[in-house]
TrEMBL record, chain A:
Class of enzymatic activity (EC top level): oxidoreductase
Protein name: Carbon-monoxide dehydrogenase medium subunit
InterPro entries, sorted: CO_DH_flav_C (IPR005107), CO_DH_flav_C_dom_sf (IPR036683), Diverse_Substr_Oxidored (IPR051312), FAD-bd_PCMH (IPR016166), FAD-bd_PCMH-like_sf (IPR036318), FAD-bd_PCMH_sub1 (IPR016167), FAD-bd_PCMH_sub2 (IPR016169), Mopterin_DH_FAD-bd (IPR002346)
Keywords: FAD, Flavoprotein, Oxidoreductase
SUPFAM superfamilies named in the record: CO dehydrogenase flavoprotein C-terminal domain-like, FAD-binding/transporter-associated domain-like
Gene3D superfamilies attached to this UniProt entry: 3.30.465.10, CO dehydrogenase flavoprotein, C-terminal domain, Uridine Diphospho-n-acetylenolpyruvylglucosamine Reductase, domain 2
EC number(s) reported in the record: 1.2.7.4
Species of the source: Roseococcus suduntuyensis
GO molecular-function term, one example from the UniProt record: anaerobic carbon-monoxide dehydrogenase activity
Keyword Electron transport: no
Pfam families: CO_deh_flav_C (PF03450), FAD_binding_5 (PF00941)
Domain FAD-binding PCMH-type positions: 1-174
From TrEMBL, chain B:
Protein's name according to its UniProt entry: Carbon-monoxide dehydrogenase large subunit
Domain Aldehyde oxidase/xanthine dehydrogenase a/b hammerhead: start-end pairs: 36-151
Phylogenetic placement of the source organism: Bacteria, Pseudomonadati, Pseudomonadota, Alphaproteobacteria, Acetobacterales
EC supergroup of this enzyme: oxidoreductase
Native source species: Roseococcus suduntuyensis
Keywords: Molybdenum, Oxidoreductase
UniProtKB/TrEMBL annotation, chain C:
Source organism phylogeny: Bacteria, Pseudomonadati, Pseudomonadota, Alphaproteobacteria, Acetobacterales
Protein name, as recorded: Carbon-monoxide dehydrogenase small subunit
Domain 2Fe-2S ferredoxin-type as annotated: residue spans: 1-77
Gene3D superfamilies in the cross-refs: 3.10.20.30, [2Fe-2S]-binding domain
UniProt keyword Metal-binding present: yes
Entry's EC annotation: 1.2.7.4
Keyword terms, alphabetized: 2Fe-2S, Iron, Iron-sulfur, Metal-binding, Oxidoreductase
UniProt GO MF annotations: 2 iron, 2 sulfur cluster binding; anaerobic carbon-monoxide dehydrogenase activity; metal ion binding
PROSITE patterns: 2FE2S_FER_1, 2FE2S_FER_2
A Pfam family this chain is assigned to: Fer2_2
Length: 288, 798, 171
């Protein structure tokens, strides 16, 4: 369908943005989700406020001990950025899973997090990496942990008049291990089930601070707290993996969807957990 | 017959016969415009005063329309007019889609827009015309309809039960058509058989998803009384008749123009109520109306297909001899049979095609075709073939497994012998000449079976499950009037071609078959160039215009090359004879001593060039005074062709699929695919090969991904391309194509159809590959699409 | 609202409704009908065009947001000669049937030529995985791209040290 009638404003600075954000205004960043949904004519979009030319929302830097990724960073930029590859390699791994090149050239990290699709990769990565979202509003900003940002199906902690300005990722230390795996029907599809797994693997071979985060299996990214607890402090061996798999079931409450019943998603999560941890297991353990 | 000289047939190289184009991989002349974005699809056509249509579509699977309030829509800026079913009924007569030869078939009258009841979700109910499509959609959003939702009939298994919702009460029940074919004594033979294998197969309802959606512009000009319709269609002459008949015009008052078409696959060969509504509205308003379906409308209102449940049994002897098949097919077709080809054909084809490659004695196959409150189904690429093939070949591999036989040995034992033709199959299909054994031999030259089996064993040892599956099939092409005409439909089985030579020696051919992207125009150009004796670049082809092409059926059921191609060849040869007669008079030589080679009159014996066609054209057209007074000099010839001996030209083939099943995730990875098909004379291998590959991918799509999913209340859940999954490049395998050529003797050209072979065999081959991979784990899947959920369930993993 | 942008190297100024997406703007306002609307919800890839040098889905871009942008469509890409060799390979290998996906496919394939000269067949399939073709089995398309890449690689190495060569010279 053709898009319904809508208004369009471009903000060239944050000041202009605050002036433009009134009743019925929606933020337009990369537009790869918002504009696709307009074709369904499910809602009156009101006025779209284009933020893509606001310089403060751009840029990738390491400042204050964190990797700061501007909200307008496009997926393609994220995927080829050297700082990202060095300090948050999970994100570099995640980008090829996101849709297709033409979408990655437009879609932004801020847009992906704000839309909060439960099957999207970047929200899960943000949770897995324990990222902090910088939320700006007129006259100030606040920081919210990714874990607290996603509040339900397509809902977030964003208040009216607030936007995502940037995402801050802790710098990956030398002992960080990260992997993203998903089962999608076709390349670029939203995953039937996905896992962003981040943990520290000490020199003693023990796991600390595991953050297994599943996506496509709930109403947002699912941090598998019980599975994580089952792994904490253990050597990453078959028994630990089995323990995490056993604990995982209680972390999940997946809905049925067109691909299959909840039982399938639970099963796929167990498989992904096993494969992800197997891939992070030191070679000597794998041989054993 | 079949004595057209090709280089091979007379022992010459291509260089010796430079304008021998039949059998040659000539690039399509129309491709440069496609790769440069210079094609003209219907949506690219803009006419003065053109209005745009959008439709309010039923949100309910079944509901009474109590009231329609249009005032708010009329107030929307840009909206010009709103039409309801009652408005259009004044100018357009309803249709009933039945065919006389399908005994006992029934369906209800259908209007362009329903009068008082919507019977599927997505049925067009109200039309809004505006000066842009966006404004028309705004108008649709402003319409209010009072609906009285009714219970919906959505489960075909209960469609015939007592007390079920009867969708059209005047029909008495939901049974549209049933037919049983029998041969021999199935009950006795099965009772005495060594082994009976039995299974229930399900093929998922899916749809065509042509990338160009359905597109039409209708323009009624009161000044000359002509309705001109630009339409993406496979059958312009059929549509001419339909528009004339139902809008109360003479056929001569309707012109259908079909420029470039963005894919059809059967989707664009049917009469869609919303498209008839567009023509009716143009008739009323006397100005052009455009309708381009959007993708959501496509999913809800393009025809669907393949919604079948098939219970099937096959009996075999201990030595692997097939004794017979016993099949019960049930299919749900939506609330109306689709006009004018009817929705009974697919079930009917299942009855005709099960067991197709094999010689056996006992057969019983019943199809029952029932109504549902879902989108109508009708003929879609390889009508019924992938269903019949999957059932037959699924049973064959099951039987082989049970008997401990190699499935290829079992096939070879039972395939109709290559020297057994003519042959009549148990359901009564007459085969002129097939090549099952030669095709299997050819396939085994291509598929490294021993290496694959070794790899399979090696991989199994490390927990990787790969499978190799085969599927032999027959395909029905070149239909005669026995398909539709005999049933009373004005759908032409013959086709014509007019070929003329212009003064510069170039040739123009106009044909009744149409181009949808498969390369019809390219092969017609090759055939005409070959027949007349000119370089292919000197041939221009006209198709897709009822005012400017000979009357014909269009392109469907794989008839473009076989029927349209033969008409082109015969008219080209007639033109050549005509040219030679004129040349003989000019050169004072006997016409039979002359030939035409690459645009020149030559001496047949020596090959010496005598005169260019350019010079001949100059004299004929501008200095006719110098020619003998009584010499016929019409450098134009028309020939029509229709098959005569056989109702259909059957073809055959066999496919192999090599796939890997991830038994933890249920995902299937396609590793490699092979096809051997026999479409008779191959006019252009380049075109046939990629068309076969496209057909395979379409078949694989249906087997792995594509599914129109409805909930129990008749709501379509797969309404976007994010939910209805089509095959994309990353997952598709490399596909190897080989050919065996058994030309039909019905024509000089000898071509049969090729377009549906890929789709016919691929789902069965993939199913067998998956089940070969799963066999050691005691699992199998028979319900398409073979989704991860179904595979995991079969494995007992969920 | 008024926008001024560069389309296929020509500056155009037009009034656009905010609700117009880029593909309708190109097709309806500029008559550039080579780009096609296949799904209008960002999935099929038929509307693939370049904005500021990168491929995008034209149906997921507001025309109104493109003031000052540089847009290249199949018409402009063709006129520039940038992918003449690729287009020749499409023709030679019958990598198009109905042609409705083809302009978008060529735009996406041009992206491979421009950015991923070392792509193998699997990478080509992956890069084109967002462009739906219902007619071909994708194989001819993959082969056309692969053949173009390898021909360019041969010419690039042959040309090394021989100074600048125009793209036309590659043909």
């Amino acid at each position: 369908m053709k898009w319904p009638a809508l208004g369009y404003l471009r903000a060239s600075s944050l000041d202009e943005l605050w002036r433009a954000l009134g009743d019925g205004a929606q933020i337009l960043a990369g537009g790869q989700t918002l504009l696709a949904t307009l074709a369904f004519r499910l809602s009156e979009p009101g006025t779209l406020v284009d933020i893509t030319r606001i310089p403060e929302l751009r840029g990738i830097s390491v400042t204050g001990g964190v990797l700061r990724v501007g909200a307008l960073t496009r997926h393609a930029e994220l995927g080829r950025d050297a700082l990202v590859a060095r300090h948050a390699p999970l994100l570099t791994q995640a980008v090829p899973h996101i849709a297709h090149p033409a979408i990655r050239n437009r879609g932004t990290i801020g847009g992906s997090l704000a839309y909060a699709d439960p099957a999207a990769e970047l929200p899960a990565c943000a949770v897995a990496l324990d990222a902090t979202l910088v939320l700006a509003r007129e006259g100030g900003e606040r920081r919210v942990k990714a874990t607290d940002f996603f509040t339900g199906l397509l809902t977030t902690a964003l208040e009216p008049g607030e936007i995502i300005a940037a995402v801050e990722f802790p710098l990956a230390g030398p002992s960080q291990r990260a992997v993203i795996l998903e089962v999608a029907r076709r390349s670029g599809d939203y995953a039937m089930a996905g896992l962003a797994a981040v943990l520290d693997l000490g020199a003693d071979g023990r796991v600390t601070a595991p953050r297994l985060t599943f996506f496509g299996v709930g109403d947002g990214p699912v941090l598998a707290t019980r599975a994580n607890a089952a792994l904490e402090g253990r050597a990453l061996d078959a028994a630990a993996i089995a323990a995490a798999q056993a604990a995982l079931d209680a972390d999940l409450d997946p809905p049925a969807d067109l691909h299959g019943p909840p039982a399938m998603k639970r099963h796929l999560c167990r498989v992904l957990l096993g494969r992800a941890l197997q891939s992070l297991t030191p070679a000597t353990e794998q041989a054993a | 017959m079949n004595e057209i000289p090709t280089p091979a047939s007379i022992g010459l190289s291509r260089e010796d016969l430079p304008n021998s184009y039949i059998g040659r991989s000539v690039p399509r002349p129309s491709l440069p415009k496609l790769v440069q974005g210079r094609a003209t699809y219907t949506d690219d056509v803009v006419l003065p005063r053109m209005l745009h249509a959008a439709f309010l579509r039923s949100p309910h699977a079944h509901a009474r329309i109590l009231a329609i309030r249009i005032e708010a829509a009329l107030a929307v800026p840009g909206v010009v007019r709103v039409f309801t079913g009652a408005d259009l009924a004044k100018v357009c007569d309803p249709w009933v889609a039945v065919l006389d030869h399908l005994k006992g078939m029934k369906s209800a009258p259908q209007h362009p827009l329903p009068l008082d009841r919507a019977t599927w979700q997505g049925e067009a109910v109200v039309a809004v015309l505006a000066d842009t499509r966006a404004a028309a959609e705004d108008g649709v959003a402003a319409i209010e309809v009072d609906w009285d939702p009714l219970p919906a009939q959505t489960d075909m298994e209960t469609a015939l039960d007592a007390g079920t919702v009867v969708i059209h009460p005047e029909l008495g029940d939901n049974l549209v058509f049933t037919r049983t074919a029998t041969k021999g004594d199935v009950d006795a033979a099965f009772a005495a058989a060594h082994k009976v294998v039995e299974a229930t197969f399900v093929t998922g309802r899916h749809t065509g998803v042509t990338l160009e959606p359905r597109s039409i512009i209708a323009d009624y000009n009161r000044a000359d009384g002509m309705l001109t319709v630009h339409q993406a269609t496979q059958a312009p002459h059929m549509m001419q008749n339909v528009f004339a008949k139902h809008l109360r015009l003479e056929e001569s008052q309707v012109r259908v123009i079909c420029k470039d078409v963005g894919g059809s696959f059967g989707i664009k060969v049917h009469v869609y109520p919303d498209e008839v509504a567009v023509a009716a509205m143009a008739r009323v308003l006397g100005r052009p109306v455009k309708f381009i379906a959007d993708r959501f409308e496509s999913f809800a209102s393009d025809i669907h297909a393949r919604d079948h449940r098939i219970k099937a049994r096959m009996a075999v002897n201990a030595d692997g001899t097939i004794i017979g098949f016993d099949v019960d097919d049930l299919t749900g077709i939506g609330p109306y049979s689709v006009y004018p080809r009817t929705s009974a054909m697919e079930g009917n084809q299942v009855v005709n095609l099960v067991g197709g490659p094999y010689d056996f004695a006992h057969y019983r196959c019943t199809t029952r075709v029932v109504l549902q409150n879902k989108a109508p189904t009708c003929q879609y690429r390889a009508v019924g073939h992938p269903i019949a093939t999957a059932v037959t070949e699924g049973l064959v591999e099951m039987a082989a497994r049970e008997l401990g036989m190699d499935a290829l040995d079992l096939r070879r034992r039972n395939m109709i012998r290559d020297d057994a033709y003519p042959f009549t199959s148990p359901p009564g299909m007459r085969f002129e000449g097939l090549s099952h054994h030669a095709s299997l031999d050819k396939l085994l030259e291509m598929v490294p079976v021993a290496r694959i089996r070794a790899d399979q064993a090696e991989q199994r040892a490390i927990g990787v499950h790969r499978g190799l599956g085969f599927a032999a099939f027959i395909e029905l092409t070149n239909p005669s009037p026995f398909m539709y005409g005999i049933g009373g439909a004005r759908i032409s089985a013959q086709d014509g071609c007019t070929v003329r030579m212009d003064p510069d020696g170039s040739v123009v051919a106009s044909s009744g078959v149409t181009e949808q992207g498969q390369g019809t125009e390219a092969i017609l150009a090759q055939i005409v160039a070959h027949g007349v004796g000119v370089p292919v670049e000197r041939v221009k082809i006209i198709t897709g215009d009822t005012l400017n092409t000979p009357y014909g059926g269009g392109t469907w059921a794989c008839r473009g090359a076989g029927i349209g191609g033969e008409a082109a060849l015969q008219s080209a040869l007639a033109l050549k004879a005509q040219i030679l007669e004129v040349a003989g008079a000019m050169l004072q030589a006997a016409p039979e001593s002359l030939d035409i080679v690459m645009g020149h009159i030559t001496d047949r014996a020596s090959g010496a060039q005598r005169m260019s066609l350019h010079e001949l054209g100059r004299i004929v057209y501008f200095r006719g005074d110098t020619l003998p007074r009584d010499l016929p000099r019409e450098l134009v010839q028309t020939r029509h062709f229709i098959t005569k001996e056989y109702p259909f030209a059957f073809t055959n083939g066999i496919q192999a699929c090599w796939a890997e099943v991830d038994t933890d995730t249920g995902m299937v990875k396609l590793l490699e695919h092979w096809v051997v098909e026999d479409c008779g004379r191959v006019v252009n291998p380049l075109l046939v090969d990629e068309q076969v590959r496209g057909g395979v991918v379409q078949g694989l799509g249906g087997a792995l991904y594509e599914h129109c999913v409805y909930d129990e209340r008749g709501n379509l859940l797969t309404t976007t391309m994010a939910d209805y999954l089509v095959p994309m490049s990353a997952e598709m395998p490399d596909i190897h194509v080989g050919h065996v050529e058994t030309p039909t003797k019905e024509s000089l050209l000898g071509a049969k159809g090729a377009g549906e072979a890929g789709t016919a065999g691929a789902p069965g081959a993939l199913m067998n590959a998956i089940n070969d991979a799963l066999a050691p784990l005691g699992a199998r899947v028979l319900e398409q699409p073979f989704t991860p959920a179904r595979i995991l369930a079969a494995l007992g993993r969920i | 609202m008024m926008i001024t942008l560069t389309v296929n190297g020509e500056r155009v100024t037009r009034h656009v409704e905010p609700r117009r997406h880029l593909i309708d703007f190109l097709r309806l306002d500029l008559g550039l009908t080579g780009s096609h609307a296949g799904c209008e919800h960002g999935v099929c890839g038929a509307c693939t065009v370049r904005v500021d040098g990168e491929i995008v889905r034209g149906c997921l871009v507001l025309a109104a947001s493109l003031d000052g942008a540089e847009v290249t469509t199949i018409e402009g890409l063709t006129d520039s000669g940038e992918v003449a060799d690729l287009q020749d390979q499409f023709v030679a290998r019958n990598a198009a049937q109905c042609g409705f996906c083809t302009p978008g496919m060529v735009m996406a394939a041009a992206d491979i030529l421009a950015h991923h000269a070392d792509a193998d067949r699997a990478a080509i399939r992956e890069h084109l995985a967002g462009n739906y073709c219902r007619c071909t089995g994708y194989q001819a398309i993959v082969e056309a791209v692969a053949a173009t890449l390898s021909e360019r690689a041969i010419h690039t190495s042959a040309d090394a040290g021989r100074g600048d060569r125009t793209r036309e010279a590659r043909r």
